[in-house]
Design goal:
Oligomer: heterodimer
Number of strands of chain A: 13
Helix content of chain A: 25-40%
Helix content of chain B: 40-55%
CATH architecture of the largest domain in chain A: 3-Layer(aba) Sandwich
Radius of gyration of chain B: 21 Å
Strand content of chain B: 15-25%
CATH topology of the largest domain in chain B: Rossmann fold
Largest sheet of chain A: 7 strands, mixed
Low-confidence stretches of chain B: none
Mean pLDDT of chain B: 95
Structural class of chain B: alpha/beta
CATH superfamily of the largest domain in chain B: Thiamin diphosphate (ThDP)-binding fold, Pyr/PP domains
Distance between the termini of chain B: 50 Å
Order of helices and strands of chain B: EHEHEHEHEHEHEHEEHEEHEEHEHEH
Strand content of chain A: 15-25%
CATH class of the largest domain in chain A: Alpha Beta
Number of domains of chain A: 2
CATH architecture of the largest domain in chain B: 3-Layer(aba) Sandwich
Chain lengths: 488, 364
């Protein structure tokens, strides 16, 4: 102050408190900022710092720096700073704001960063209505990398990669980001401003402040596009480049407010408090349940080693059949595994799964040589018939067992189980009739465990009742056929 | 406590939330989608964030943001999606940000198919993105390990401030087995280095940019030092019947399970066969291989990829023992009969060599 008094002047544009007292540069460059004379970034930085200062949010602000000349934000802004990958700042900002909704998250991006490589990220962040503020500095070119063409390059404008000037035929037309994003329903505020003269600069400062203030008020997504001079790459003097913003750029990119829903926007309410930690296991459904009633020792008299392959058409309940079996085995204190064939097969065509129940730890959950095959249709029988271990069982859903599939070294139970289920009231219970037959043969799992599994997996009481009858009917068919076999 | 029957993909999410993970960003892909679906159900209920991103590129950069904000976070994908995430993984390693990525691999290259394969070994274990970095990689072989190693992945990611990957295949993700979880949830931690938008963290900076060559070199030396430390402290492997093994089978994930069945059957035949299953793929459990090489006469690597794991096994053995190889790819699985036949053939060859008095030479 004393210096100023002595000099007889007053500084009316003091350093904003949101700026560092000193910025660090290599010693020989310490006297200057990273920005070239006449660059718009310094001006934009200043208006942003002023907004942060005036809104009193320095201790809440997180600035996301881009790749490009804007990368240096963290040398200047005394706020929380995160440097993002090229174009990805809106994605980074999304997560920071979602996890820290009380913070003010500002994504600072250039036109190469935002409108080209980051076009998806900005579009979707805007479309989700992320509660962030985006400062989009548009100088119609890639400056940091030496002046290559950008989606925002004007028609006819020369760049190192459009040496003859941008042509609509080869490179398309300049991309109007503000207009494009304004077609979305979620953004609350989108304005394009310029740095073409003092009047424009004053308007730009108001727009930047509004974009930040909207976030402080919890209103939603705001973006300010700033047409900004780049004298070095444009090969102009600072004054010429400022005039070029006003006289040339503005013709392609008209200034104005493209979207303003700040009046009708509802302020974001504070997120619901997280549940207490003690409740988390309960929320996840992993609270310790009681030990099963049927312990392994009670349930078993002999060693169990069931290797089951279940196959049929998609929609026949192949996977559920396997799941009930595995769940019942677990309830009975056995080691179990269940492995599905997955993917589009689940939606059409064939479906199959591998189930193991064992009194010993299970090495591989893959069943390549089953000792039980449930074939719910003929193609499945033909596919897996040969893989059944000698001495194993094939339970087949069909009137007649195809003679060419007959093997002398395996047991076969063939029955039209679909009809059986149909008689019970719904052909879809076929899977449970076949499970009943398997359980009757295997004898490894107590009925109570099967009931428990069924109740756990089938929610609809009508289906539980039908499935129970189907299981019992399947068992009965199996018993009858065994009697037949013995008497024959 | 009674165990629950659960899919591997679901166990990952429950374990993550119990470990204090409160953000999930992902993009659907078979066979990993159940992870995103379970996260969509449970994460908001636990007070966390779930967002389905517009792409894997965006998803990994959302993790970059969440991790920067000090939140334990994760994503899940499969081969093609992991390829897209490599940019972000490199940035996170460079900026020293912890996160957990589950890769439930499928068939490749390109669109490949959705069946289980292990072709992502190179891109995950060797660090598929640009620059000098590594990811910590854990390979579960069961639903229980899906839960346990996910929790461990968060620990390691934090300890080394580095992305950690749970590398599983479609089988381990899709299968159901009994699983048990810790009965107490860990409190989300608050790292001092995070940028949370508060006065206390105002001075913190997250970046991977070091313009000065000396600074960048120093930064990379720092990363290397972390990796060396992880190599000393974090290697894990399961050994099975290896005490007197002359033939050592090795494979990870679902292949490890198949090799267990093979080992049992070969042992029943009286063959001295054992299994060494790497659990950490990076850092690689080299010492286990070197120790077993003292007694073993041959190692057989079995992979559902075209010879990726075998490179690390050979590096670990450094020519000390011959390494044989068997693989199935494209979604086909090595059957235990196939591998058993190979083991028997190997045993016969060794017997013949012994009878003729010739010592086996190591192939290099």
């Amino acid at each position: 102050m004393s210096n100023q008094a002595e000099a007889g002047y007053v500084v009316s544009h003091g350093r904003s408190k949101a700026f560092y007292e000193r910025f660090e540069r290599k010693s020989e460059l310490q006297h200057q900022t990273h920005f070239c004379p006449g660059c718009g970034h310094g001006t934009v930085h200043k208006m942003l710092a002023q907004a942060i200062d005036e809104l009193g949010i320095q201790d809440r602000t997180i600035m996301i720096g881009p790749v490009g000349c804007g990368v240096f934000t963290y040398y200047y802004f005394d706020v929380g700073n995160v440097q993002a990958a090229h174009g990805r700042a809106p994605a980074v900002a999304t997560a920071m704001k979602r996890s820290r909704p009380e913070s003010i998250v500002i994504s600072y991006q250039g036109d190469g960063d935002l409108s080209a490589i980051g076009s998806a990220e900005i579009l979707h962040a805007a479309n989700r209505g992320e509660h962030i503020s985006v400062i989009f500095v548009n100088n119609a070119i890639y400056s940091m990398t030496g002046g290559q063409f950008a989606p925002t390059t004007l028609l006819g404008q020369k760049s190192t990669t459009t040496p003859l000037g941008r042509s609509a035929k080869a490179e398309g037309y300049p991309l109007h980001i503000s207009e494009l994003l304004a077609t979305l329903q979620a953004p609350v505020y989108i304005e394009r401003v310029g740095l073409g003269d003092n009047k424009q600069v004053a308007q730009a400062a108001r727009a930047v402040r509004r974009a930040v203030e909207n976030q402080v008020r919890g209103l939603g997504f705001s973006l300010v596009e700033i047409l900004s001079p780049c004298p070095t790459i444009w090969k102009m003097t600072p004054v010429e480049s400022q005039h070029w913003v006003r006289d040339v750029m503005e013709k392609t990119f008209p200034l104005g407010v493209f979207c303003d829903r700040t009046r009708e926007a509802q302020a974001q309410t504070a997120p619901a408090a997280a549940p207490p930690l003690e409740r988390i296991p309960e929320i996840l459904g992993v609270v310790g349940a009681a030990e099963p009633e049927f312990s392994a020792t009670q349930a078993r008299t002999a060693e169990v080693d069931l290797e089951v392959r279940i196959a049929g058409f998609g929609g026949q309940g192949v996977l559920l059949l396997g799941e009930v079996l595995a769940e019942a085995g677990l309830d009975a204190g056995l080691e179990v595994s269940w492995l599905p064939s997955y993917g589009p097969e689940m939606r059409s065509g064939t479906s199959n799964c591998h189930v193991r129940l064992s009194s010993a730890p299970i090495d591989s959950p893959l069943v390549s040589a089953p000792n039980m095959l449930i074939a719910m249709n003929e193609p499945s029988l033909r596919k897996f018939d040969a893989s059944v271990r000698p001495g194993g069982w094939i339970i087949y859903n069909g009137d007649e067992f195809p003679p060419e599939c007959m093997r002398k070294d395996v047991h076969v139970l063939a029955h039209p189980f679909t009809h059986l289920a149909d008689e019970l009231g719904d052909a879809r219970a076929c899977n449970m009739t076949m499970l009943g037959a398997l359980l009757e043969i295997a004898g490894a799992v107590p009925q109570a465990s099967i009931d428990a599994a069924l109740h756990r997996l089938v929610r609809n009481p009508r289906w539980v009742e039908l499935d129970e009858r189907a299981l019992e009917r399947g068992r009965a068919v199996c018993r009858e056929s065994m009697v037949e076999e013995v008497t024959r | 406590m009674r165990k629950q029957l659960m899919k591997g993909n679901e166990a990952i999410v429950k374990s993550a939330i119990l470990a204090g993970c409160r953000a999930f960003y992902g993009y659907p892909i078979t066979p990993a989608s159940e992870i995103a679906e379970a996260a969509a159900e449970y994460m908001p209920q636990a007070g966390g964030v779930f967002v389905q991103a517009e792409s894997e590129v965006a998803a990994i950069n959302m993790l970059y943001g969440a991790a920067s904000a000090g939140v334990r976070c994760m994503t899940a994908s499969s081969g093609p999606g992991i390829s897209l995430m490599q940019e972000g993984i490199s940035y996170m390693a460079g900026a020293e940000l912890p996160c957990v990525i589950a890769d439930i691999t499928r068939g490749g290259p390109g669109l490949g198919n959705i069946a289980a394969e292990q072709g992502d070994y190179h891109q995950v274990v060797k660090g598929g993105g640009h620059g000098n970095y590594r990811t910590l990689v854990l390979a579960p072989d069961s639903v229980q390990e899906m839960a346990d190693l996910t929790a461990l992945a968060f620990e390691l990611a934090d300890r080394y401030r580095n992305p950690a990957v749970v590398l599983a295949d479609g089988f381990v993700g899709q299968m159901m087995e009994p699983v048990e979880f810790p009965q107490a949830a860990a409190a989300p931690r608050q790292p001092t280095w995070a940028v949370t938008g508060t006065a206390e963290t105002r001075a913190n900076l997250i970046t991977s940019l070091y313009l000065d060559p000396d600074e960048l070199e120093a930064h990379q030396r720092g990363l290397e030092a972390k990796y060396r430390l992880a190599e000393q402290r974090e290697t894990r492997a399961e050994e099975w019947s290896t005490e007197d093994a002359e033939i050592v089978l090795t494979g990870y994930g679902i292949v490890g399970r198949i090799l267990k069945a093979v080992t049992s059957e070969a042992r029943a035949d009286g063959l001295k066969v054992g299994l060494l299953r790497p659990i950490t793929l990076y850092p690689f459990p080299r010492a286990h291989f070197q120790r077993l090489a003292r007694r073993a006469r041959v190692f057989i690597v079995v992979e559902m990829s075209n010879g990726q794991l075998i490179e690390d096994v050979r590096l670990a053995l450094n020519g000390a023992r011959p390494v044989e190889f068997f693989s199935r790819v494209g979604g086909n699985v090595p059957s235990h009969q196939e591998v058993l036949a190979l083991v028997r053939e190997q045993a016969r060859r060794m017997k013949r060599a012994q009878a003729s008095g010739k010592e086996q030479m190591a192939h290099v």
